[in-house]
Design a protein that fits this description.
This protein is α+β, with helices and mostly antiparallel strands and 775 residues long. It is built from 27 helices and 26 strands. Helix 1 runs antiparallel to helix 3, helix 1 runs antiparallel to helix 8 and helix 18 runs parallel beside helix 20.
Length: 775
C-alpha cells in the first residue's frame, strides 16, 4: 500500500489535516464544555443564594406569625389556663393562614400542650436545647424521619409558659418553587441524614448505586468542598452543589442538592459542534483530494525519473522531460545531463575497452566479440599478421612511429580486404577475420596480401622495409582443445610458420601438441625425480689416438610409470620453460657421479660429461651446489655448455665457468656451429674441449663444404689449445675422415648408443678385450 510515494504523500497530508481537525474539534468541544460548566456553576451558585434568601424569608414569615400568636392576650390566657380547645382553634386558624403543615404549643417541660396537623413522633428536645444555648430557635428538625423547617416563639405570661412551634415539611413539592425561580432548569433534591450517617432522598426513581453516589458527593461537599462539581449519578454527567440546611440544634440533618445535566448545558452548542464536524469532514475530503492531486503532480516526474533511471541501469538511453521550473524540474535537467555524461563516459569506456590505445584499432576483445557473432557462419577464418623483428624496428624508429607502422599495415589490410574485420592482438600482431571457402583458399588469399603488406613504408622522413608472417586458423572450435580460441590458434600458427621458415602457415594441432598434458607431464617429472624414475644413460667417447674409450656423456632418460621410457626431447625443453630444469639437472649430476664411482670400482677411469642448461649457467646458487657435488666425484667431471647459454648474461656465465675450471671441472663447448657461433665468446670461455655439432658430421662424407668447415674448426680449436669431439659419428667413412683431420674424440652410434650402467660395463669390458674395432 505504501510502496508508492503518491500514496504516502496523500496519507501524510490527509493524516496531518485530520489530526489538525481532530485537535481543533477537541479544543472547541473542551472550550464549549468548560464554558458550559462554568456557566452552570455560576447559575447553581446563584440558585443556592436565592434559596438562602427564600429560606431566610420563610423563616421570618413563620417567626412573625408565631410572635403574633404568642403576644395575643387571649391565647396567652388560654395557654396559662390550659384551655386546650381554645389553643387548638387558634393554632389551626393560624396554621391554615400561614400555610404550614404543623402548629403546636410546647410546654416548658417539653410536652405538647396542643397541636394542629400531624406532628408524628417528633422529639422536640432540640427546641429546648436551642432556647437554652441562646441560638435562634429556627431550623430543620426531623418529624417521623422527614425533614421540616421549624421555628419556635416563646410564650411569656409574663414568665415563660411554653413555645409556639410552626413546622413546614421539606419535600420535592416544596422545592419546586426554587426550581421555577432558577434561570436554568436545574433539579433540586432534599437530602436527609439517616441513622448510619449517610444521606438519603425520597425520590423513588433513583437506584441504590445512584443513591450511594449522591450520598458520597454530599458528604464531600458538606465537609468543606462547597463549590459546584461534576456528578454522575447514573443519569449522565451533571454539575451539582449541596447546600446544608440549618438544624434547630446540632449538626445539619438535611441538605439541598442542586444539579444541572451537562447534556442540557451543551444542547445549545450541539449545532455548532455538528457544524465543526461537518466542516472537518468536508475539509478532510478536500485534503485527501488535494493531497492526491498534489502528490500526483510531485510523483509523476519522480516516477518518470525512476523509470529513466531503470532504463539507464539497463544500459539504454534515458531522458526526462522537465515540465516545471522548480526543484523537480531542475532535478530532471540534472538527470538528463548526468545521463548524457554517463552515456558519453560509457561510450568512451567501451571504446577504450574494445580498442587499442596506441593505434585506435579494435583490440583482442573486439575481435573476440566479432568472432562470436560470426562463429556460427561457415567459412570464417582468422589470420594473425605478425611484424617480423618488430622489437628491433621499434628500437630504431621509436614507439610513436612503431604505432604508425602498425596502423599503416592495418589500413593496407582494410584496403585489400574491405569485408574483413581487422584489429590489434598484441604489440606486433594484427588479427584479421575474413571469409574463405576452405583452408586452401584462405592460404592463397593470405599469400596475395603479402606483396602489398611488405611494400616499403614511408614513416616520417625515412622509408622502412616491412616483413610479416601470417598464421591461419578456422573459426570452428578445435576438437583437440575446445577452450582455445581461433585467435590463439592463429597466433600459434605464426610460430609454426617461422619454425618452418614459411611466410604463411595453417595451424597444425598435431604439431602443436597438448600444452595441458605437457604441464601435467612436468608435475609427473617432479614426482619422478623424487621417486627415482629418472635414469642416466652413458654414451661412450672414443679417443681416436689412444684407440680406447676414455670418457662418456651422461644422458637423462625418464621411465614414466604409465607412458614408458620417454626421450629427452619430450621433457627437457618443457623443464627449461617451467623452471624444473634445476631439479632435473641436480638429479642427473648426482646419478652421474654415482655411476662414475661404480665404473671406478670396476677399473674404468672415465671422464663423465654432464650437460648444463643455459638457464642454470647464470644461477649462482646452482653453481655452488654443482661445485659441492663435483668435489665428491671420484673421477674427472666435465660440464658441457653452449655458446648461446652465455649470450644472455655473459659476465655472470663466464665467471661461473671460470670457477668450474679452477675447481678442476672440465668445460666443453657443446653444439658448436649449430647456433650463432662467435669467435669473441670462444676466445673468452675458459674451456677444455669443443664439440662439433652432428649436423656437420652426418654429411661429412658427402659434402665438401662440411669437410672444409670441420677441418678448419679442428685446426682453430687446436690452435686455441682445445680438444675436439665430433658428435653424430655413425659411419666408418666419417670416422676415417675425422681421424685424418686430427680430431681427438668421436661420439656417436658407430661407437655406441647411450646405454644403462650395466650395459656400459659390458661394453667397456669388450672394448678392453679388443673386441671393438673402429676405422
Amino acid at each position: 500500500m505504501f510502496g508508492r510515494l503518491r500514496t504516502k504523500l496523500t496519507v501524510l497530508y490527509a493524516g496531518l489535516f485530520g489530526a489538525t481537525a481532530v485537535i481543533i474539534a477537541l479544543a472547541v468541544y473542551l472550550a464549549i464544555t468548560a464554558n458550559a460548566e462554568q456557566l452552570v456553576r455560576h447559575e447553581l451558585e446563584a440558585s443556592a443564594t436565592v434559596f438562602d434568601r427564600l429560606w431566610t424569608m420563610r423563616s421570618a414569615e413563620l417567626t412573625d406569625a408565631g410572635d403574633l400568636l404568642a403576644r395575643d392576650f387571649g391565647f396567652r390566657e388560654a395557654v396559662a389556663s390550659r384551655d386546650r380547645p381554645t389553643i387548638e382553634s387558634a393554632l389551626d386558624n393560624l396554621r391554615q393562614r400561614s400555610g404550614v403543615d404543623v402548629a403546636l404549643v410546647l410546654g416548658v417541660d417539653g410536652a405538647v400542650a396542643a397541636q394542629s396537623g400531624d406532628a408524628g413522633k417528633a422529639d422536640w428536645a432540640n427546641v429546648l436545647e436551642a432556647n437554652q444555648d441562646g441560638s435562634e430557635p429556627s431550623g430543620v428538625t426531623l418529624i417521623g424521619h422527614a425533614p421540616y423547617q421549624a421555628i419556635a416563639t416563646p410564650i411569656l405570661s409574663p414568665t415563660l409558659t411554653g413555645w409556639v412551634v410552626f413546622a413546614q415539611k421539606l419535600d420535592q413539592p416544596s422545592v419546586k418553587a426554587l426550581e421555577r425561580l432558577s434561570a436554568i432548569p436545574l433539579d433540586a433534591l432534599v437530602l436527609r441524614r439517616v441513622d448510619g450517617g449517610s444521606w438519603a432522598t425520597d425520590v423513588a426513581k433513583l437506584g441504590p448505586a445512584e443513591r450511594r453516589t449522591i450520598s458520597e458527593f454530599a458528604e464531600r461537599q458538606l465537609k468543606g468542598d462547597a463549590e459546584a462539581r461534576q456528578l454522575d449519578a447514573g443519569q449522565g454527567p451533571a454539575i451539582a452543589i449541596v447546600k446544608p440546611l440549618k438544624s434547630l440544634s446540632g449538626p445539619p440533618v438535611a441538605a439541598l442538592l442542586l444539579r444541572y445535566p451537562l447534556a442540557l448545558a451543551l444542547a445549545p452548542y450541539q449545532p455548532l459542534l455538528e457544524v465543526v464536524i461537518l466542516i472537518g469532514a468536508a475539509g478532510m475530503a478536500l485534503a485527501i483530494f488535494g493531497s492526491w492531486m498534489l502528490a500526483a503532480g510531485v510523483t509523476r516526474p519522480v516516477s518518470a525519473l525512476d523509470e529513466a533511471a531503470r532504463r539507464l541501469q539497463r544500459g539504454e538511453r534515458a531522458s526526462v522531460v522537465a515540465e516545471t521550473r522548480d526543484e523537480i524540474g531542475r532535478l530532471a535537467q540534472s538527470f538528463n545531463h548526468m545521463a548524457e555524461a554517463i552515456g558519453e563516459r560509457e561510450r568512451q569506456i567501451t571504446h577504450l575497452a574494445t580498442h587499442d590505445g596506441e593505434t585506435d584499432l579494435p583490440n583482442r576483445l573486439a575481435l573476440e566479440q566479432s568472432l562470436a557473432k560470426l562463429g556460427s557462419h561457415r567459412g570464417v577464418m582468422v589470420a594473425a599478421v605478425t611484424i617480423d623483428r618488430f622489437a628491433q624496428v621499434r628500437e630504431v624508429i621509436g614507439y610513436e612511429l612503431a604505432g604508425v607502422l602498425v596502423r599503416e599495415i592495418a589500413e593496407r589490410l582494410c584496403v585489400r580486404a574491405p569485408d574483413a574485420v581487422v584489429g590489434r592482438l598484441s604489440s606486433d600482431t594484427l588479427g584479421v577475420i575474413f571469409f574463405a571457402d576452405d583452408a586452401g583458399s584462405a592460404r592463397q588469399a593470405a599469400l596475395s596480401l603479402l606483396e602489398s603488406l611488405e611494400a616499403p613504408m614511408r614513416l616520417g622522413e625515412a622509408t622502412t622495409d616491412v616483413a610479416v608472417t601470417m598464421g591461419l586458423a578456422p573459426a570452428q572450435t578445435d576438437p583437440m582443445d575446445p577452450t582455445r580460441s581461433a585467435l590463439v590458434r592463429s597466433a600459434i600458427a605464426v610460430g609454426q610458420a617461422r619454425a618452418a621458415r614459411q611466410k604463411v602457415a595453417l595451424f597444425d594441432a598435431l604439431a602443436y601438441g597438448d600444452p595441458a598434458a605437457n604441464l601435467s607431464l612436468m608435475s609427473d617429472m617432479l614426482r619422478g625425480v623424487a621417486e627415482g624414475h629418472i635414469e642416466v644413460y652413458l654414451q661412450p667417447k672414443y679417443a681416436i689416438r689412444q684407440a680406447q674409450v676414455t670418457g662418456a656423456e651422461a644422458l637423462v632418460r625418464w621411465r614414466h610409470p604409465t607412458r614408458g621410457l620417454l626421450p629427452p626431447d619430450m621433457f627437457i625443453p618443457l623443464a627449461e620453460e617451467t623452471g624444473h630444469i634445476r631439479a632435473l639437472t641436480d638429479c642427473v649430476l648426482l646419478k652421474a657421479i654415482e655411476h662414475q664411482a661404480v665404473l671406478q670400482r670396476a677399473g674404468h677411469d672415465l671422464e663423465v660429461s654432464v650437460n648444463i642448461s643455459g638457464r642454470l649457467l647464470c644461477d649462482a646458487e646452482f653453481a655452488e651446489v654443482a661445485l659441492a657435488m663435483a668435489a665428491t666425484a671420484q673421477g674427472r667431471l666435465c660440464f658441457e655448455v653452449t655458446e648461446t647459454a652465455i649470450m644472455d648474461e655473459p659476465q655472470r656465465a663466464l665467471a661461473h665457468i671460470e670457477r668450474f675450471a679452477q675447481a678442476g671441472v672440465g668445460v666443453s663447448i657443446d653444439d658448436y656451429g649449430a647456433g650463432l657461433s662467435s669467435l669473441a665468446y670462444l676466445k673468452q670461455i675458459r674451456a677444455d674441449e669443443l664439440k662439433i655439432d652432428k649436423a656437420f658430421i652426418l654429411s661429412l662424407a658427402h659434402s665438401r663444404k662440411d669437410t672444409l668447415l670441420v677441418r678448419s674448426t679442428i685446426e682453430l680449436a687446436h690452435s686455441l689449445g682445445l680438444k675436439v669431439t665430433a658428435e653424430g659419428v655413425e659411419t666408418q667413412e666419417a670416422f676415417a675422415l675425422l681421424a685424418g683431420m686430427g680430431c681427438d674424440y668421436a661420439q656417436g652410434f658407430l661407437i655406441e648408443r647411450p646405454l644403462p650402467l650395466k650395459d656400459v660395463l659390458t661394453f667397456l669390458h669388450e672394448n678392453r678385450a679388443g673386441k671393438k674395432r673402429y676405422g
